[in-house]
């Protein structure tokens, strides 16, 4: 388990900073603390080796009823190796597009799949993050029995202000637009039937599981009595003047984008008496491994295999239409990237994905979008898409700067663009 944790710590460091000093032996008072930065490649090899060492010693998995559930397993170690080698094979670090690196990433993902102890969760998609299930490989579990009564629950952080939430994490219009239509088409596809004045109709089922939007039922009426006594309903009111706008309840907590996250939120939560719920913060799950494998096989020229693994994920989500065989090349790569954005939403992947793909200078240089909704006298609504925040992404932002105190203490070379 310690080998897994060390690999995980180094993976997080290399994802943020690139190559870092590899500390393989304990220090004492006479040690030389000026360990130089290792190359990114050396760090990835060390992470891979540590994952292999952990996998050789750990059980494949633990049953959810076991007191060991939640600890590191062989599957968790191999899943971490899969992600690390996928990152190492990507354009940020594999400038020459060496197919051998993609083969390693493919093999690492296949090793997890070959364990055959996980399967895509067949129950409600909403429950993936709120209860033990067949898909979770590694997660940080939270049991409300031991969390006390402080206002620290994700329901408080995520919920709209009209439900006395804080809207601390709000989806952007950019993310909302990434969700396709019910038949699996992009909303930019002229044959999709998408209407920007009926934006929430016939969308990807995952949209309804992950996003709270104007008109979406949310919570139980009996849990928010003051809201209903004020004349509201059990649907979110993000329109101007609605209960979940900046002119509704707790106005200072209104979402500036007029969206809130539904993912990770337990709607059986009773605001009147509870401040915590059971939760599984996903570290890795089977869907990610399918996506890792699909991307690696695509980069090795096996587009049919890539489509097949994307279809497995989309079919589970409720999209019955298979990807067309005409979806190839750059368009298929964009679909792989889009599926990661949607399927792994709010699981800590997007920040690193756009960097390893070397597309962050495009995706992160766009304004952060939201929507303004006006409810007309006849009950219809008008949607105007707005800029909430202008953002700038510079070349050095592909990596974080090493903290100055570390530079002064160890004379480590700084990442490019930060000197």
List the helices and strands and how they pair.
Layout: H1 2-17, H2 40-57, H3 74-89, H4 99-113, E1 136-142, H5 154-158, H6 173-178, H7 205-210, E2 211-212, H8 225-229, E3 260-261, E4 279-285, H9 286-299, H10 303-317, H11 329-343, H12 350-356, H13 360-363, E5 368-375, E6 381-389, H14 404-410
Antiparallel strand pairs: 1-4, 2-3, 5-6
Helix pairs in contact: 1-2, 1-3, 2-3, 3-4, 4-9, 9-10, 9-11, 10-11
Straight-line distance between termini = 38 Å
Q: Which fold name is given in CATH as the topology of the largest domain?
A: Serine Threonine Protein Phosphatase 5, Tetratricopeptide repeat
Largest sheet: 2 strands, antiparallel
Low-pLDDT stretches are none
Measured as a percent range, the helix fraction is 25-40%
Helix-strand category: mainly alpha
Order of secondary-structure elements: HHHHEHHHEHEEHHHHHEEH
Second-tier CATH architecture of the largest domain: Alpha Horseshoe
Number of domains: 2
